[in-house]
Amino acid sequence: MLVTNKKIAIIGGGPGGLTLARLLQQQGAEVTVYERDSTRDARQQGATLDLHEESGLRALSAAGLLNAFRAHYRPGADKIRLLDGQATIVYDQHQQPDALTFGDAHFRPEIDRGPLRDLLIDSLAPGTIVWNSQLQELTPTPNGWQLYFADGCTNHVHLVIGADGANSQVRPLVTSLRPFFTGYTVVEGNVYDAARHAPGLWKLTKSGKLFALGGEKSIIVSAKGDGSLSFYTCQRTTENWVQASGIDFQSPPQVAAWFARDFAAWSPLWRELFATNHAYYVPRPQYCMPLDQDWPAQPTLTLLGDAAHLMPPYAGEGVNMAMLDALELSHCLTNGQFPTLLAAISHYETAMRRRGSEVAAISIESMEEIHSPNGLAWMRQVME
Ligand SMILES: Cc1cc2nc3c(=O)[nH]c(=O)nc-3n(C[C@H](O)[C@H](O)[C@H](O)COP(=O)(O)OP(=O)(O)OC[C@H]3O[C@@H](n4cnc5c(N)ncnc54)[C@H](O)[C@@H]3O)c2cc1C
């Protein structure tokens, strides 16, 4: 096996990095995940997400974790209500029969991000994840890489996989290409104990999702298993809107004032998302890696997930792609079909880039359609 007696460092313990660690560990590889979060509970994990049969679920199945997934997924959480800005329901999947199940190509079961992360972490050998390890720099050595972390620790490894997400520290060592700004900014948020703090919207979700579109803006709301509502708004902005707006996103009243202004034409019901201190808000300008990116493969360094092909979330594929990357990379490194690490990584990267570009193109197109004057009609036709 190409990775026998090799120390492998995965930078980043998101869904992509953790899935890869599990898959490689199953093959007996010596793998460590370096994660910048101080502990596994350091950060509130984001929204609920749907895993797809051909990617996320396939990776979990190969990792022997499908039963763990079945124990934690949320039946019915995939049901969407499509609404206009006045909160009028124009299409309701709760009215549709439950026809699909595991094994159906179009079945997209939902799981909250926290439980997904937990089940991946719990599948790893103790000590695999080194928490509080923010990679700051990596320098090449004759047989690998020297890693330097923010806490002063340093380590030598033979193979590095950058799974460190949107603002990857590893990416610049692989490609000089940078993500481009798509013209849109998302404001992501979470309202805790939503039955109390956002009761109207909590009821409206019916434990599923709301897609609200109007006036070239959108809000996507998901009910989570812990009783919170996670959501993200989106609208067209300039690249520096977050700084230029002067809004302190740590201050709920300031965020509420922005929302009331920019979504003034929308029903007051949506303001529930901003009317409480039991919430957090994070602005996220939307970037995307170039769709035609290419780079020469290296024998001891590669990328997966958002580090490789960051894209806006409008194809619902980011986590699924990161997990499929992990599956395909683990195959290439362990299936005995490649004579060298360089050949294995080159094969993986060629397919990964092509797949990432195709999905990113769909995501950009969906984002444009959703925020077009006919966004609601477009979305309805996609869902019907
Ligand atoms: C608002 C929003 C909604 C989304 N909705 C969906 C959806 O419904 N479905 C879907 O499939 N995708 C969705 N996505 C996309 C999805 O979140 C990402 O594509 C996915 O998380 C990428 O996984 P990853 O493992 O590559 O990276 P990440 O999940 O970003 O994980 C990277 C990890 O690396 C760590 N890290 C970062 N830098 C360092 C460093 N220097 N040193 C050590 N560790 C580091 C981070 O702490 C993190 O744990 C959404 C994204 C957003 C912003």
UniProtKB/TrEMBL annotation:
> Is Coiled coil included in the keywords of this UniProt record?
no
What does the record's free text say on domains? Consists of an N-terminal FAD-binding domain with a Rossman fold and a C-terminal substrate-binding domain.
Report the protein name in the record. Answer: Flavin-dependent monooxygenase
Chain positions recorded as NADPH binding sites? 43
> GO terms for molecular function, please?
monooxygenase activity
UniProt catalytic activity: a tetracycline + NADPH + O2 + H(+) = an 11a-hydroxytetracycline + NADP(+) + H2O
Functionally, this protein is described as follows: An FAD-requiring monooxygenase active on some tetracycline antibiotic derivatives, which leads to their inactivation. Hydroxylates carbon 11a of tetracycline and some analogs.
Similarity comment text for this entry: Belongs to the aromatic-ring hydroxylase family. TetX subfamily.
